[in-house]
UniProtKB/TrEMBL annotation:
Species annotation: Corynebacterium diphtheriae
Tagged with keyword Lipoprotein: no
PROSITE patterns the record matches: PROKAR_LIPOPROTEIN
Alphabetical keyword list: Signal
Name the UniProt record assigns to this protein: Low molecular weight antigen MTB12-like C-terminal domain-containing protein
Length: 206
């Protein structure tokens, strides 16, 4: 597989060099070389990463919920984790309090984008049967695999009380938490009282 990729890359590079040689003689060779390097760099960045193993993805979940792991390591395990470090406090506390366990099982399949994969995660609680969550998405970002933000929030919502859900995962349409008064509704405008018809005049005595 790697050999075929190398052969394909070599053929592509040869084609680019041939096109550059056939271009206008007045073109700057340095500019052509720079453009070729830039194109190669972009292609390398867009190339899909190799599929991870179930063990590698389990290690990511283990770090995310490890109370001894530094925050710097934890934020690199969930997509967008650097913007919500409180997410990991909730994940860790949830695992400790409930005894919940997450286990990635093979197979690991290609995801919705070139740099994503889908996996099945078995969710277990003490004394209960494992509940499989299918198509859990992991994203390859900044050179490492991460649990997608949407699935991190899904796992949290299934293990903590609603008031413990971090803002990153809160439903904007959810009702206000208990203890906070709901916004008062403005009273409806009072309708004007209906005017009474005048009493009929009594006939004059004859």
């Amino acid at each position: 597989m790697k050999l075929s990729k190398i052969v394909a890359a070599t053929a592509t590079a040869a084609a680019v060099i041939s096109l550059a040689a056939c271009s206008d003689d007045s073109s700057d060779p340095k500019t052509s070389k720079s453009a070729t390097s830039s194109e190669a760099s972009s292609a390398a960045e867009a190339a899909p990463a190799e599929l991870p193993t179930a063990e590698e993805l389990n290690a990511i979940l283990a770090v995310a919920t490890d109370p001894a792991a530094p925050v710097e390591q934890k934020v690199a395990t969930v997509q967008g984790g650097e913007t919500a470090p409180e997410l990991f406090e909730t994940m860790t506390a949830s695992k400790q309090e409930s005894g919940a366990n997450f286990q990635v099982v093979p197979p690991i399949l290609p995801g919705y984008t070139p740099n994503s994969v889908l996996a099945t995660v078995n969710f277990t609680l003490p004394g209960k049967e494992a509940q499989p969550a299918e198509n859990v998405e992991f994203i390859y970002e900044n050179g490492t695999w991460k649990l997608s933000q949407s699935w991190a929030c899904t796992l949290i919502k299934n293990t903590v009380a609603p008031e413990q859900i971090p803002a990153m995962c809160a439903d904007p349409a959810a009702p206000a938490p208990e203890g906070q008064p709901a916004p008062e509704q403005a009273p409806a405008p009072e309708a004007p009282a209906p005017e009474q018809a005048p009493a009929p005049e009594a006939p004059a005595p004859q």
